[in-house]
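WARN no homologs supplied; continuing
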Amino acid sequence: MAKQLIKHGQLVDDRWQALALADGATDGDAAALPIPAGQVIIPAPVWLAQRDALCSRADAGDIAVSLAPTFRVEDIAQDVQRFAMIAVEFPKFIDGRGYSTARLLRERYAYRGELRAVGNIGRDQLFYLKRVGFDAFLIPPGQDAAAALQSLNDFPEVYQGAVDQPLPLFRRRTA
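OK structure emitted
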């Protein structure tokens, strides 16, 4: 089944290949994971373990990183501008740490590349994920990507300021 990706408000094909470490993987496993050529998403521990080699690759611009909920963004802060894409994992519907991660990446570390929400995300979350800075959403299998796409427009106006609209409504009305 093809991956369902919403990017910049459109359904698009996903050309990225995601690599994963096995549960309970060690630093040695991260250092030994082979990285294929082409557009590849690697877990952040793999980036940290193989950083020098990955930076010297001819296709270094084809490297993206995946952040688990327990990963500290500060550990890759110096490198965020190197990544064409950062994927933030949502392993459970109730796990909201990815919202904070996105906001940190956009506001504190000025990351302007693709910021992708992956994992257990649902239609009702997309509007709020967009507010904190996500611009791409990998829709889980079994969900209707077209309905999910429509959810980005569920609310025509927002009151509070956020990453996607820094000015609150009262400031926009007086401007």
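The first helix runs from residue 27 to 32.
OK
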